[in-house]
Amino acid sequence: MMINNSTNNSTNNPNKKDKRRATILSKLYKLEESFCVDRDYYYRGMLQTLQQKLMTAHAGTNEELKEKYLDLEEERDYELVRLRLWEEYQADRAEKEFQEAVEKANKEHDEMVKVVKERLYASLEKQIKQLKEDKVLLDMANSHSYNMDTTIDLHKNTRSQQSLKESSISTMGYGSDRTRAHRRRHDYTSQAEDTNASANESGNTSAAGGGRRKKTRYSSAEESWLSDGDLSSLLFGDRKDKPSTRHSNKSYQPPNSLKNEEISEDLNFLRGL
Predict the structure, then answer these.
(1) Residue 245: DSSP 8-state
(2) Which of 45, 85, 252, 265 could form a disulfide with 155 if both were Cys (CB 3.0 to 4.6 A apart)?
(3) Domain-by-domain residue ranges, the chain?
(4) CA distance readout (Å), 5 to 12, 16, 181, 267
């Protein structure tokens, strides 16, 4: 029984598939036949519809196209307005940022100028103070050097006055020596004249005795003449001035001037005070 049922089912199934295939094929055949019959009608209807749309579009009487055109215009205007507002917003924002940047730059510039002025004023005040200190120190150094120069000039003048005084004293001594020599020469001449007169009055004596006496008188006068050192110095020019022990001939040695290193050390020391 079971074997018979299975064979019946297998025989029934192919029959159903064949029937369904046959039904589909028949419908397709009918559609093809109807399309072949109505093909020209469908194409003609589509062509007429397109031509009508073109005519209404050129004439401006197509409501659908008008609505689409208005929608596109509204969308365009919206986008244009949106773009214009965006550009204005960007321009305003750029202008505000520019103004903020300018204000910030001006503020920084003013602060920088203020700082530079303060530093410049401080530097100038420091330089002025340093120059004043240097001026005081230089005035002190100049006064010291002036005092040294004055002392040197004073010593030079003193030495020149002493030399002039010594030369005048030597000149006066030389004149007195000449006066004394002249007086002695006059005394010697008067004595010789007196001797000759006395010899003439007493008579002529022997030539040898007279010559011997004359020679004796002359030798004694000559001895008295040569015994004077001042007369010898006058005749022979060998008179030398005695060295003066009152003043020393040693030249004045001024103190050494300060060196640049010592001056800079003094300046630094005074600045530190």
Answers:
(1) S
(2) 252
(3) 22-61
(4) 11, 17, 204, 138
